[in-house]
Design brief:
Subunit structure: Component of the lipopolysaccharide transport and assembly complex. The LptBFG transporter is composed of two ATP-binding proteins (LptB) and two transmembrane proteins (LptF and LptG).
Function: Part of the ABC transporter complex LptBFG involved in the translocation of lipopolysaccharide (LPS) from the inner membrane to the outer membrane.
Order of helices and strands: HHHH
Number of strands: 0
Structural class: mainly alpha
Distance between the termini: 74 Å
Keywords: Cell membrane, Membrane, Transmembrane, Transmembrane helix
Shape: elongated
Radius of gyration: 22 Å
Subcellular location: Cell membrane
Strand content: under 5%
Membrane topology: Multi-pass membrane protein
Helix content: over 70%
Length: 151
């Protein structure tokens, strides 16, 4: 029984690290490419720093969008790492069922599910509002400078 707990912790830790690593890599790539896209929209009233702030305020939304696919990719990477060392074969040969291994992988996915719910309920609405205020501040400033309505 103690050996199964140790194996369960090992499988959960391996897949959780792979999931979090995948989440970090995909999030950084999404932020980088979004920032590069925003650099194409630079104008005198919207500089690179404002674009960077806009992208940072949008980062939780990107993270929320990336979490499901990163959980899947991370689970595959984690199980692949276990399979490359024949650890899954050893687990199966000592009588650990496939569904039990899947349950251990789902434990680590549960962490990302909780993070996803927390982001969608509390963080993303606030940060989206801030990101839109950065963009709308740019358009209001442009409107005021060009037409003189807001002086």
């Amino acid at each position: 029984m103690l050996a199964r707990r140790i194996v369960a912790k090992y499988v959960t830790k391996t897949t959780a690290l792979a999931m979090f690593g995948t989440t970090i890599v995909l999030s950084v790539l999404q932020i980088l490419f979004t920032y590069l896209g925003e650099l194409g929209e630079l104008k005198p009233d919207y500089n690179a720093w404002q674009a960077f702030i806009y992208v940072l305020w949008g980062a939780p939304r990107y993270l929320y969008e990336i979490l499901p696919i990163s959980a899947l990719i991370g689970a595959v990477i984690g199980l692949g790492a276990l399979a490359s060392n024949s650890e899954l074969i050893v687990m199966r040969s000592v009588g650990i069922s496939l569904w039990r291994i899947v349950g251990w992988v789902m434990r680590s996915a549960l962490l990302l599910i909780v993070l996803s719910f927390a982001l969608s309920e509390w963080v993303v609405p606030y940060t989206n509002e801030k990101a839109q205020s950065v963009k709308s501040h740019r358009s209001v400033a442009a409107l005021g400078e060009v037409k003189g309505y807001w002086s």
